[in-house]
Amino acid sequence: MQIRNFSIIAHIDHGKSTLADRLLQATNAVSEREAQAQFLDSMDIERERGITIKASAVTVFHQIGGEKFMLNFIDTPGHVDFTYEVSRALTACEGALLVVDATQGVQAQTVANAYLAVNQNLELIPVINKIDLPSARPDEVAMEIEQVIGLPAEDCILVSAKTGQGIPELLERICTRLPGPRTSTMDFTRGLIFDAVYDDYRGVIVYLRMFDGTLKVGDKVRMMGAQRSFVVTELGKYTPKPVKAQSLSEGETGYLVANIKTLADVRIGDTVTQEYTPAPEPLPGYQEPKQMVFCDFYPAIEGDDEDGSPGQRKAASDFEELRDAITKLSLNDASFTFQTVHSEALGFGFRCGFLGLLHMDIIQERLEREGGVKIIQTAPTVTYQVKMHDGEEREIHNPADLPDPGTFDEIREPIVKIDIMLPERCIGDVMKLCQERRAEFKAQQFISEGRQMLKYEIPLAEIIYDFYDKLKSLTSGYGTMDYDVTGFHADDLVKLDILVNGTPVEALSIIVHRDKATVRGRLLCQKLREQIPRHQFEIPIQAAIGSKVIARETIKSVRKDVTAKCYGGDVSRKRKLLEKQKEGKKRMKSVGQVNIPQEAFMAVLEQGE
User: Fold this and answer.
1) What is the average pLDDT across 508-525?
2) Res 349 pLDDT > 80
3) 309 pLDDT exceeds 50?
């Protein structure tokens, strides 16, 4: 039996998951009765949003000309934030299907994923999907693929994943065009761990691709990176239902269960080998992902203690629940990091690092759904480098950690190279948007009639908030972008502190360019005035750079009419009551605490114009 290992890669919403559904049906892996849309997307959040978040590995069987083929394929995510998932999947393959929408053509992430596959020397099969739509233009898209990516237009396979048109021809091309697994280079057993999930009953389930040798049930295996040993209790494949197997041979993909109860014992990219005859060296693993967006997660404490204090009794247990949920999720998604932090306003929590803003949004939602915890999330920030007077360089993930202004020479911010594909008619609007975000123009490239690519260098902090939303709005949904961090650049950056009732709130501090500090400070104060409820005393909200206040808003106090009981008489009676109330307000303001709701912490996300 011949083996073919491949991934399905594409820009977001170009039909990868639907194509995977048709491949499952065409190979009789799923019956018509069992079939459903996005069959491999197991999470509710994937189905609701219509996006793939986790790569899914499946084994199916197909017969051509009397010869049987085992097809191991991985359906991968398409959004730029999940490029790490795609790169891991490609490492376990010898080929890839590059899917392009026949109506939209080559997009930014199409190019990025194609380059990922080419860098790993994979065989690419270009697939033009959605040819059944009235607006499809397959011939033009084939020429775009040839011009932008360099794959011959005549090699493109036209399919409709919705109707099944062209699927038999695609299966034949997969079997005849894609190379088989490379021949083993040693007599030892080596398997690459490319994913893992946690199961409450069976422990950690490891997904691996065998490169050398064979694994059998009952073998004692060693994780070469973690230096831990386990006895294999179950092996199997997803077809797409889990099917047990007695062994996994070289070139095959499957799962391994070995009573692994501790999450830290498994590392994505580690090599599995035999305990008693270990391989002399591990397989090349994965480059560690570089987290670029950071924010804090704190447990949301609900309810009051018996003494009336706001939920102090529950704080410790809520923090432990959040810790357990984050630890489990970190195994299923190895591309985000976390460390414990403490805030005076919010207590103990975690500072988490993400690949992008959508990645952060998905992680928060998965924690609340799968972990059953309620979360307060602070505004996202990026990594900054600070050069101290003595030459030392520090990495700052939180504006609150920025040293005093007199102790460092400069702040450097991350710069990204961004490729924007857009309709020709929208170039002026998008260029204006980029200029507003301190972008530097690099190049302009012709893609096809009516479409062009703009290349810019832009600070990462300027695009993590609402740049993508504004790009979609300006281009009527046709603009796409892909970015890659190129390095750090020094600029005139300052820390903007937010003071509520005279007290700095660390969670609301941000680092901004000095030219935008005043506008941003006014906007933040206005947003906070709308979000923070009125108290029985006046609350000043100030934005400050160091000791200089640059913006202020005031939340008026809730005023009780203390003179209501005075019916006539001398005016001094009313004055006396009003003076007494004023003294009480002063005393209350000096000891009163301001309750800041979750919406206020998210107000810093709103850039405004």
Assistant:
1) 86
2) yes
3) no
DSSP letter (8 states) at residue 160 = B
Report the SS3 class of residue 487.
strand
Is the Cβ–Cβ distance between 92 and 194 less than 8 Å? yes
Averaged over 480-498, what is the pLDDT?
Answer: 84
pLDDT at site 585: 64
Q: What is the pLDDT of residue 85?
A: 67
Whole-number Cα distances in Å, 585 to 469, 500, 592:
44, 17, 10
Q: Which residue has the tokens 């703009």?
A: 454
Do 384-491 and 494-605 show the same overall fold? yes
CATH 3.40.50.300 corresponds to the domain 2-177: yes
Confidence of residue 308 (pLDDT cuts 50, 70, 90): very low
The pair of structure tokens assigned to 579 is 């003076």
Chain centroid, CA 124 distance in Å? 26
Q: Tokens at residue 218, please?
A: 């009952």
In this structure, which topology does domain 190-274 adopt according to CATH?
A: Elongation Factor Tu (Ef-tu); domain 3 (2.40.30)
Q: What is the 3-state secondary structure (H, E, C) of 516-534?
A: HHHHHHHHHHHHHHHHCCC
pLDDT of 307 reads 41
**Which amino acid is located at 159 in the chain?**
V
Residue of 369, 324, 320 lying closest to 347 (CA atoms): 320
- With respect to CATH, is domain 384-491 assigned 3.40.50.1820? no
Residue 103 CB partners (closer than 8 Å, separation 6+): 130, 133, 135, 136, 137
Rounded CA separation 446/453 (Å): 6
Q: What does CATH list as the number for 494-605? A: 3.30.70.2570
CA atoms of 512 and 608, how far apart (whole Å): 14
- Residue 570's φ and ψ, nearest 5 degrees, are -70, 145
Distance CA(523)–CA(546), nearest Å, equals 18
* pLDDT at 496 (0 to 100): 87
CATH class, 293-379 region: alpha beta
Q: 303 with 314: CB under 8 angstroms? A: yes
CA gap 129, 16 in Å, rounded: 9
Going from N- to C-terminal start, the domains of the chain cover 2-177, 190-274, 293-379, 384-491, 494-605
Amino acid at 35: A
**Predicted pLDDT at 306:** 40
Tokens of 300: 């949301």
Whole-prediction pTM: 0.67
How large is the C-alpha radius of gyration of the chain? 29
List, as one string, the DSSP characters of 397-463: SSGGGPPPGGGEEEEEEEEEEEEEEEEGGGHHHHHHHHHHTT-EEEEEEEEETTEEEEEEEEEGGGT
pLDDT tens digit sequence for 350-390: 888 887 777 787 888 888 887 788 887 777 778 888 888 88
CA dist., res. 190 & res. 455, Å (int): 42
What was the pLDDT predicted at 431? 92
Cα dihedral 176, 182, 187, 191, rounded to 10, equals -100
Instruction: Tell me the pLDDT tens digit for each residue of 39-90.
Output: 444 445 444 444 554 556 788 888 887 788 888 887 776 555 566 667 777 7
- Whole-angstrom distance, CA of residue 473 vs CA of residue 421: 14
pLDDT, greater one: 567 or 67 = 67
Paired strand residues for 349? 341
pLDDT band per the 50, 70, 90 thresholds, residue 595: low
